[in-house]
Description:
This protein is mainly alpha-helical. Helix content is 37%, strand content 5%. The longest helix is centred in the middle third of the chain and has 25 residues, at 111-135.
Amino acid sequence: xxxxxxxxxARGYEKVILVGWSGGGSLSLFYQAESEAPxxxxxxxxxxxxxxxxxxxxxxxVIFIAAHLSRAETLIEWLDPSVTDExxxxxxxxxFDIYDSACPHQPPYTDEFVRRFRxxxxxxxxxxxxxxxxxxxxxxxxxxSSSAALCAKLGDLRRCPSGRAGAPSPFLxxxxxxxxxxxxxxxxxxxxxx
Length: 194
């Protein structure tokens, strides 16, 4: 983004506006925040990336189109809390398995169920994060050599046989919570219908 902002100014544009669509919304805002008050000196993995010395030029404005709050928040909302073992996605907690018609909770979902569902999504996210942090190599060379082994152990989530990598949250399929007119018992991709 810095190169594009700089290029637009060099070409003589009076105003430079960042437009962030979907996940680009939070990324555009991140860029703007760091250009106005830089504070980041390392990536979450610990790699040195000193944005305080990068000289990022701020844009004159930011527009968001269908932007979500953050990828982290969106991905937590899409986690299927019924999965009890990351290495066995078919092992599930029936109380949260909204894909299964035998789940005791069916739409429209109660506020209490949604609270418990959300708490279980956050708990699964923290469990995954803890697992990753325990295994995170500390040096760049260790990260490179361990990547292949980690991928082999976890497998490719896109080929997950149970399709548990992107569960819809209850609000996507409950008219009592979301009055968007979305189809009942359907994930965000609506394929296959639930």
